[in-house]
């Protein structure tokens, strides 16, 4: 059988890096779009790229990186024409909800119009019948939730420029499927985290802080809304589902979630527990603090600068369609296991940082 070709936008991100690993394992020829940046932005895929460069010596290279940007349509057309991918995974996005309030227009250009450009690129290159497209849709579409738990049929009510941009991307993907018979699908993924999660998303911010506090290199952790409830899964499990969706005989949209939700407060407690610190809470609202039960030291404070102009208070997904039709296991990694994976990684990182810092003291 001919080797399949995949094009991943957002390959340097959390999901892109795990997906690239998975597709290489499955024998794909993987192409990724990277942005030009003034410093290296390929840290998450360096291991793959270096491995592949070594393999290249034996002319068996499986990963190729191309410069590109979701706001540069002619570049996307050129890439699609050159690669003629069997599968496209559109993961590139300005993906930070809070940042989208500061960069609403850029977020729309990248997340909404960028998706349109990619779909158009496939159409212009007349690859509608060959190329299958995965669109990284999100639980943020549900925003102010209209139904609990949220499933494929739950109405949308986005609460941020990010959510609104992703809503356009969702519908344009569906529209191209219905209008041109393209195999283009939405994965409505709920929050998924990992040791590769960006450091400004709440879970990673917490696991890094708990590790640095344990190591003595950070004093306190400042957080925003401690009450939000999220359905958190492990990113490595979720990228498998992206692939499964594109192997399904019919193009369909799927909710991917664990079906369990926890608060930011609980995620913090679990993370600190990994370093032997029991957190006790005192106060309410912006006055709330998290103390170390043993020493009484204040370790967590609320800083209103992390509040959002409009908040998504609660998200809980119903993954039963994916479980049934894709044979996906939504309970592969529990929240406790996820925290352990992230804390193990971040403790090592904190120790390394400390050693480097000490050598300069
Ligand atoms: P990340 O923020 O980790 O990665 C985003 C990727 O998009 C990076 O590779 C980034 O490149 C790239 N990117 C950003 N802007 C552009 C642009 N203008 N042109 C080209 N590339 C760009 O996100 P995740 O891996 O966590 O998420 C992947 C996708 O899934 C995103 O679309 C996100 O919105 C969506 N999603 C994520 C969920 C989650 O919980 N993680 C849940 C639901 C949906 P660079 O490295 O150069 O910044
Ligand atoms: P989210 O993830 O907005 O759900 O979007 P994030 O981790 O940023 O926030 C989750 C919840 O935690 C609250 N929160 C804080 N958030 C951040 N970032 N920093 C803080 O200090 C903090 N304190 C409390 C937030 O208010 C929020 O309620 C993620 C992204 O990956 C999106 O791209 C994706 O679409 C959705 O998940 C599903």
From TrEMBL:
Residues 7-342 form the NAD(P)-binding domain. GO terms for molecular function: GDP-mannose 4,6-dehydratase activity. Its EC number is 4.2.1.47. Keywords: Lyase, NADP. It is an enzyme of class 4 (lyase). InterPro entries: GDP_Man_deHydtase, NAD(P)-bd_dom, NAD(P)-bd_dom_sf. Its cofactor is NADP(+). Belongs to the NAD(P)-dependent epimerase/dehydratase family. GDP-mannose 4,6-dehydratase subfamily. Catalyzes the conversion of GDP-D-mannose to GDP-4-dehydro-6-deoxy-D-mannose. This is GDP-mannose 4,6-dehydratase. It comes from Olleya marilimosa. The gene is gmd.
